[in-house]
Design goal:
This protein is mostly beta strands. The chain is 0% helix and 48% strand.
């Protein structure tokens, strides 16, 4: 699983959604200014990672480290589709506002480990061939 770093300005910090009894998620949208047009990049923080977004608000300059997840899904109609998602693992303030959180220091998650890898799906099933 590839890991990427995205830097930009927070556009949206979503509310935590309790998808099931054992699964919760929270969406963050970061605006990245690289290229000809600004990119609005949605990143999902799952399970215990949802708390990392506390204290962040739209307009904050951040750097987010996330895992790139790709999935294949075949519908009942036999059509195969491919999905790409970014699973947030770490967030920290960047730019002129770095270190300007309420406690005087940026929230920093510990370095990722294998235990931090996002779950395959909410029901634990994995249909990938590898």
């Amino acid at each position: 699983m590839a890991q990427v770093t995205i830097s930009g300005t927070i556009k949206v910090v979503g509310q935590t959604q309790q998808v099931s009894e054992k699964f919760s998620k929270r969406e963050l949208v970061v605006t990245e200014q690289g290229g000809q047009y600004p990119q609005m990049i949605p990143i999902e923080f799952k399970q215990d990672k949802t708390g990392l977004l506390e204290g962040y608000k739209p307009g904050d300059e951040v750097t987010v480290t996330c895992f790139v997840n790709g999935r294949e899904w075949t519908g009942k109609d036999g059509v195969t589709k491919y999905f790409l998602s970014l699973a947030g693992n770490r967030i920290e303030r960047s730019g002129a506002g770095a270190g300007a959180s309420g406690s005087g220091a940026a929230q920093v998650a510990p370095a990722p480990t294998m235990a931090d890898m996002p779950p395959i799906s909410a029901d634990g099933e994995d249909d990938l061939p590898f």
